[in-house]
Amino acid sequence: MIPEAEHIKKEMILRNMALPDEVRLTRKSLVRWIALSLGLISPNETRTIVIDVLDVLLDEFSRGKKPTTKEIHEAVQKKRKDGVCEKTIYYHLQRLAAMGLLQREKGQYFISKDKEKLKDSIRKIYTREFDEAFEKIGKALDTIEK
């Protein structure tokens, strides 16, 4: 292992992807595209629970709601033919929270306390993380140049 790897605070992947018309035809395809572009899934991902969780969250957030773990679990259960454990849903919610994409307060999940569009909230989250990372990279590069 590279010794500096222990200093990784967070990893954020952002993929610049084409958005062809055929992706925009179905909600399911759009949610998969969003998950892939935000780095929530890998290109070879076979597990789809995180996509179902994201779909439920996007639906709830777009309607101005702040769902609980139980509400998210119930909505995911309705989407899937096979059952899914509440612990699995909670795991994915925790992962999204660790990435900084979700916040939780009083048992309810939300992206931002501000009443802004989803795209603006997500842009702010990624911009803040990338700016912080680039600031530190800049310091490291300045040190090398000296």
CATH topology: Arc Repressor Mutant, subunit A
What is the total domain count?
1
CATH superfamily: Winged helix-like DNA-binding domain superfamily/Winged helix DNA-binding domain
Helix tally?
A: 5
> Biggest sheet: strands, sense, closure?
2 strands, antiparallel
Compute the gyration radius: what is it?
A: 17 Å
Strand order of the largest sheet: 1-2
Secondary-structure element pattern, one letter each: HHHHEEH
Question: How would you describe the overall organization of this protein?
Answer:
The protein is mainly α. It has a single domain (about 10-145), classed as Arc Repressor Mutant, subunit A (Orthogonal Bundle), CATH 1.10.10.10. The chain is about 55% helix and about 5% strand. The protein contains five helices and two strands. The protein has a two-stranded antiparallel ribbon. The longest helix has 28 residues, at about 120-145. It is globular, with a radius of gyration of 17 Å. The two termini are about 30 Å apart.
